[in-house]
Amino acid sequence: MALGDLMASRFSSQSSVALVSNHYDNFPSTQGDDVLDSARRDNNSSSSSSNNNNRDRDSDTASCSNYGGGNATTGSTVATTTSMAYLPQSVVLCELRHEAFEASVPTGPSDSGIVSKWRPKDRMKTGYVALVLCLNIGVDPPDVIKISPCARMECWIDPFSMAPQKALETIGKSLRNQYERWQPKAHPKVQLDPTVDEVKKLCNTCRKHAKSERVLFHYNGHGVPKPTANGEIWLFNKSYTQYIPLPISDLDSWLRTPSIYVFDCSAAGMIVNAFQELHDWSASGSAGSTRDCILLAACEAHETLPQSDEFPADVFTSCLTTPIKMALKWFYRRSLLCDSLDYSLIDKIPGRQNDRKTLLGELNWIFTAVTDTIAWNVLPHGLFQRLFRQDLLVASLFRNFLLAERIMRSANCSPISHPMLPPTHQHHMWDAWDMAAEICLSQLPSMVEDPNSEFQSSPFFTEQLTAFEVWLDHGSEHKKPPEQLPIVLQVLLSQSHRFRALVLLGRFLDMGPWAVDLALSVGIFPYVLKLLQTTTPELRQILVFIWTKILALDKSCQVDLVKDGGHTYFIRFLDSLETYPEQRAMAAFVLAVIVDGHRRGQEACIEAGLIHVCLRLLRGSVPIDTQTEPLFLQWLCLCLGKLWEDFTEAQMVGLQADAPAICAPLLLVPQPEVRASAAFALATLLDVGGDVCRDGATGDDECYDDEKVRAEISIIRSLLSIVSDGSPLVRAEVAVALARFAFGHKQNLKSIAASYWKPQSNSLLSSLPSLAHIKATGSGYINSNQYVPHASIVSSQIGPLTRIGSDNSSMVRDGRVSTSSPLTTAGIMHGSPLSDNSSQHSDSGILNDIVSNGAVNHSRPKSLDNALYSQCVLAMFTLAKDPSPRIASLGRRVLSIIGIEQVVTKSVNSAGSSGHPGDPKTLSPSPSVAGMTRSSSWLDMNAGHLPFRTPPVSPPRLSYLTGIRRVCSLEFRPHLMNFPDSGLADPLLGSVSSSGGTERSLLPSTIYNWSCGHFSKPLLTVPDDTEEILVRREEREKFALEHIAMCQHSSVSNLNNRIANWDTKFETGTKTALLQPFSPIVVAADENEQIRQAILYKKNSACVLPKEVQQEDFGVWNYEEDYLLNGFNNHDFPDKGISKLCLVNELDDSLLLVASCDGSIRIWKDYTVNGKQKLVTAFSSIQGHKPGVRSLNAVVDWQQQSGYLYASGEISSIMLWDLDKEQLIHSIPSSSDCSVSAMSASEVHGGQFTAGFVDGSVKLYDVRIPEMLVCATRPHTENVERVVGIGFEPGLDPGKIVSASQAGDMKFLDMRNLMAPCFTIKAHRGSLTALSVHRHAPIIASGSAKQSIKIFSLNGEQIGYIRYHLTIMGQKISPVSCLAFHPYQLLLAAGATDAPFSIYADDNTLAR
């Protein structure tokens, strides 16, 4: 299958990942078809625009409700109560961005370091060749005794067939021609039977003209004695009466380096040994002769050259310079063809060596592939690069040297080299060469007889490609690399094999970065670079894929692409409509890497019109239709962002092309990666400002023309609308954008920030527009009838900065702004020096002095509206208090740019100290309060001698103190960002050099690097663990269905058997808990999110936890084995407590969703592994709250069927979040003056949930219908108390609800028929604190503050009562704070207001 087809099938199959089928289709529906069809259309359009390939929302359409009345439960319902309707098929939060966003910053393609080792550092060329022939024809040397007959041929010439002098000249000319065939511009110079002076002159001349290039010295000493043990070779005197020795040291001093020597004489190993001794002796000298000196010698020091007439006399030289002829003649004598083939025909092989369409050319091609393959598989990669890829002539000589070793070893002669090579004469690839040689020789007679006949090509390359394909089917990173890789490189030269070779090469590169590095090391790069000049249409998709893989590993290739004009190839491909969007996304990726930090690449792509191509493609994709590939949109945006990043000319082109208006709609698409990429593209359009702007010499308004001002207003307004996006990836880009904006408008933003500390500025803040009104047209995030006060979104995010429980007066006392003023409501004042009595003598005075001295007055905001600057500052505060630690760190960095430092101080009491908040030991400097007692930003930045008193800080509260300080100097100094006491150092964000840094070094974008990681992973194959995941899923589904049936048909009896008890040591008791469905694990948290030391025990057994398990937010406990699995901090500021724990993807690798009381959502993976938990994502689920509200008291529930998270609290609406899209998709008006106090999502009907309110009312919602509110009632009217707990009755009936109020009454409601009387039981008397409805069994549990738990059936019958511990002492249980049933078993977990946490089972479960 071609790679393009393989890619197409792979991408098309991704949308239908094999999941267990959904059986909803078999369930009868009694609802009107119009509602179902509408819901189905809504869902289909929603899911088609989603990029999550692992989601299946067909279940959303399977509603069986009948809201208008009647009985929805038919006879067939019973048959399907244990069907797959109970097992949601959706899986969320499992994309690349969720792997470890908080833990690491992935890097994009590298341009240096280990990945660039494949590139030859110093490409070299052999510029001159010195040929020295000492033959002395007719006179044998005295130390050689020749046999008869003996080898006589020199350069395939018989020296005795002509006069000696003529023979000598002919041989010299022939040798020169042979070298010119390998290196036409090598300038061979020949010396025949020379003297020492002639050789010296030749060497000096070659080195002089070669300069820094390599010089080759070829020595044929067949007519002189063997080299001496002292390392001397022999020459002649002028009269040829004496042999004159030439020390090898003199030769080395004349030729110097780089150089390569070929010694074709007996005992040539003597010279190699002498060279090695010379190099060792001069290693510390300055001659430098050891750096690059290569030697090839015909034999060992104790060996003589073969004399058999089977070989030529210069067999070593013949192997090096005429390898094909030598190889065929040697093979001929050892093959069966010797009896039927004329030996002389070998000299008549037709064709040219450089023409692969001829017989001689194909043989040379195969020989090159074989020897390259042997070298690649035998040599270390570094040595291979040096000998076979650095210098063309050296590479040819070493390929031929492998042949010389094979042939001469058959004559008991061992050629040697320096550097030394391992033996290769028995490598199995020589068998492939022999087969190719035999096929060639068998055709030779007919081709010589008829020169016009065509030869039959060898099957060598086809067979080797098949072998490579077999390896691809079974190989991996952990197995031996494919030995055919060099052959694939050679096959790229052939047009007939090229397509298949590229397809297989693409498959190999897709196996991972290690494969790309191997391919680059073998030398694939120049070949695929050259192929970009072809216009063959069928190669386009494959070449784009291959270049995607290469650039995903090594960014340095961008220079080569631009130099060769390769960028135009990808721009044309990007603009073509015949290819798949996924493949065009790869072209956009390649172009993004080409322009990433490469000004020449940016200029070349702008000249080629890339900006207009990308914007036209984006404009045609909005609104997004079902055919648009999100990955394509993502990389179009990233390509644009990289194209105009830090490039003013490109930014102007983008603004003139109306880029902000084209990119802004993408901020609202369902895919977080596309939203983040669009934010990145818009952010890089913001100019960070020049020195004039930064210095504030003339004001920001003079640095911008009207067009740019309007564009920046548009960009900032668009980005402010997503400051509370559900994806940290998106919010990170907003933070980067605000940082860029802060650099360009530093003085104006500092003025706004400085005005927050003026006592008279409370009227200013109260008039500021809020972020809630900055939203894109048609976003639909906040309903028009929902009340959203000024700064509501911001204040909900930075609420922990306010002083809870302070004076509610709005007056300004003693020159200070009160804690209830708009200033402190936005969370700006608390913790700053102005929040203390003495602050008016410290910071306010300094600030007023600065303002009066003109440091601020000259830069009053003029370029943009003051309101917009204020909204930007509020957005910065929002990000600084983000639930995601990384985003919060980015937000604090942005604040530091405009002169505000956040002080986050942990209370000493939180560590268990019993000291009073006012005690000196509580306020003493320690690691937990270091940021409060000193900040370098308050010091004089230049001299450090400014008289200054550290402002006293208010006594810390029992939990945590947080605050904001204004940095005294209004000029940002990046060299202090990593000062040890500044509290601003962040290893995740990179360091800033002392010479100053740019905005990129301070706030690097993350979306580009994260997106690059996509192309480093396999794109053509399904992950290996898919089958394992499906098997585990099937096992869990089987377990769940079996236990669901058991629960539905069980008769609960005596659910008061305590099977486990956990002494959590919670000071305030357990706030919430959950039981894992497929393992004996319980997760619990307390109101203050603290766990210190837990003692776990079952009946008659006890287990003491290790001492290091202390002070954690959560306990993850195995209640069968009695030990603590894990404990960890949910976040660093647990002053709000945890309101809800939920499991996400419980049938797969489950995630732990933790909802804090302030509406912050954090989702963890690997939470059961001690110390290995990772934060998957985090966001704030509640935006805006009612005026005068001090605590949000968030109410949250999760629905796996739909992938929706429902959140509400002290607000006028219910927020509906899609965790697949990580986006707020609805804000449902609660239509009530009261707040939501309890909420429950249906386990089987996606999009349906019910809410209980503070005034005792209950409402049922279904987000699949346009009006969303199905019905409302107020059942709790006797004693108007808040609804404490609410839940759907088990089963598929969508209208039956159980509601319990704080007064103790429990209502069984049928929301389909509100006219019918509801069934009521008085569970407790004014003290009900917890309610839990089993997901499948017909039982309900309620807990009371009066130390009792009651179990009821769905008929209202009390079937269980727990009041005392079943121990010897029989003490009462503690006041109940939370209850949780096991999803598939009759187990009840109960938490109390004190430390013990218990798990109960009925008699049947206990017996099992």
Structure description:
- With 1408 residues, the chain is an alpha+beta fold.
- It has 44 helices and 40 strands.
- The strands form ten sheets. The chain has a six-stranded mixed β-sheet, sandwiched between helices. The chain has a six-stranded antiparallel β-sheet with strand order 15-14-11-40-39-38.
- Helix 16 packs parallel to helix 19, helix 22 (581-595) runs parallel beside helix 25 and helix 31 (728-744) runs parallel beside helix 38.
- The protein is elongated and about 130 Å long.
- The protein starts with a helix and ends with a helix.
- It holds the Pfam family WD40.
- GO terms for molecular function: protein-macromolecule adaptor activity.
- Residues 44-53 have a biased composition (Low complexity).
What's a concise summary of this model?
It holds the Pfam family Raptor_N. The protein is an alpha+beta fold and 1408 residues long.
List keywords for this structure.
1408 residues, alpha+beta, 6-stranded mixed beta sheet, 6-stranded antiparallel beta sheet, 16% strand, elongated
Number of strands: 40
End-to-end distance, in Å?
A: 55 Å
Which shape, going by the Cα principal axes? Answer: elongated
- Mean pLDDT over all positions: 76
Q: Structural class from helices and strands? A: alpha+beta
Portion in helices: 25-40%
The spatial strand order of the largest sheet comes to: 2-1-3-6-7-8
What does the largest sheet look like? 6 strands, mixed
Regions with little confidence, pLDDT below 50 for 5+ residues: 8-82, 284-290, 690-704, 759-862, 904-1001, 1091-1112
Portion in beta strands: 15-25%
Number of helices: 44
Rg over CA atoms: 40 Å
Domain Raptor N-terminal CASPase-like: 123-276
InterPro entries: ARM-like, ARM-type_fold, Raptor, Raptor_N, WD40/YVTN_repeat-like_dom_sf, WD40_repeat_dom_sf, WD40_rpt
Region (Disordered): 28-71, 809-846, 908-931
Keywords: Repeat, WD repeat
